Amino acid sequence: MPTFTDTELQKKFCEGFTFFPFKSLEQHDTLIYKCYTGKDDLKKLLEWHNKEHDSSHYIIKIANKLRNTDIPAATRLMEVLRQAPGKDLSGATGKYHSLLTSFHNDTLQPLAAKLSDKFHSSGIENIEQMQDAVRRFMQSAEVLQTSLNGRAGKKHGLLSDREFLSKAANAMELFRALQKRNLTLLDAWKNRQMIHNSYRAMN
After folding, report:
1. Helices 86-103 and 71-81 meet at what angle, rounded to 10?
2. Closest Cα partner for 85 from 168, 144, 147?
3. How many Å apart are CA 90 and CA 71, to the nearest integer?
4. Which long-range contacts (CB under 8 A, 24 or more apart) does 190-198 make?
5. Cα(132)–Cα(103) distance, rounded to whole angstroms?
6. Residues 6+ apart with CB under 8 A from 169
7. pLDDT at 98
8. 153: burial class by Cβ within 10 Å (0-12, 13-18, 19+)?
């Protein structure tokens, strides 16, 4: 089942609201909301609002994704890269393997452990540092992946080499997609944290 960020859900809800408007809701630009009056019981609503804006669900979602999906995917990709046939391909994939090992040990594992700590809290700066770490890996990995994809596209060479490069390229692309998703989740978390901070400032 696909998962969506709050921004993505809001966009989809706005699209549906155009065709099936709820009488109790109002729309202003991209925001859909309900107007409350003094007769409404706002205590439960405010409790829910504070819980929703404490960003804890993003922490849990990202921590679970890293622990259950990203770290195992990184381990599988490293195993694929270690199977490179011949010294030439071993040298070509060695740089990516070193980059991935560093990202796995220095970013993914510590980040998953930190986010799994129930006493952990992150501010905007911490979230941006996480984003920067993921972006740096993706930028470096893209250069190496492009070079390996170029080798895979060549028709000459041993069949075993071409098969390995195709398998490695698929695994790299899958891992890249996971990191793009991490950036989306981190960005949504940062936006939610900014909203939370603005509410605290007003109160």
Report:
1. 160
2. 168
3. 23
4. 190/124, 190/127, 190/128, 190/131, 191/6, 191/7, 192/6, 192/53, 192/55, 192/58, 193/55, 193/122, 193/123, 193/124, 193/127, 194/124, 195/53, 196/53, 196/54, 196/55, 197/124
5. 12
6. 145, 148, 149, 152
7. 95
8. exposed
Token pair 């700590």 is found at 117
Using one digit for the tens of pLDDT, what is the confidence trace for 138-179?
Answer: 999 999 888 887 776 565 567 677 788 888 989 999 999 999
Segment 30-52 mean pLDDT: 60
**Which letter does DSSP use for residue 32 in this model?**
E
Give yes or no for a contact between 150 and 101, defined as CB atoms under 8 angstroms apart.
Answer: no
pLDDT band of residue 107 (cuts 50, 70, 90) is very high
Q: How many CB atoms lie within 10 A of CB 50?
A: 12
Domain range list for the chain: 6-51, 55-202
Q: How many Å separate Cα 180 from the centre of its chain?
A: 6
Radius of gyration of the chain (CA): 22
Residue 27, phi then psi, degrees to nearest 5: -120, 135
Residue type, 187: D
Average pLDDT, the chain: 79
pTM of model > 0.90:
no
> What integer is the mean pLDDT of 131-142?
96
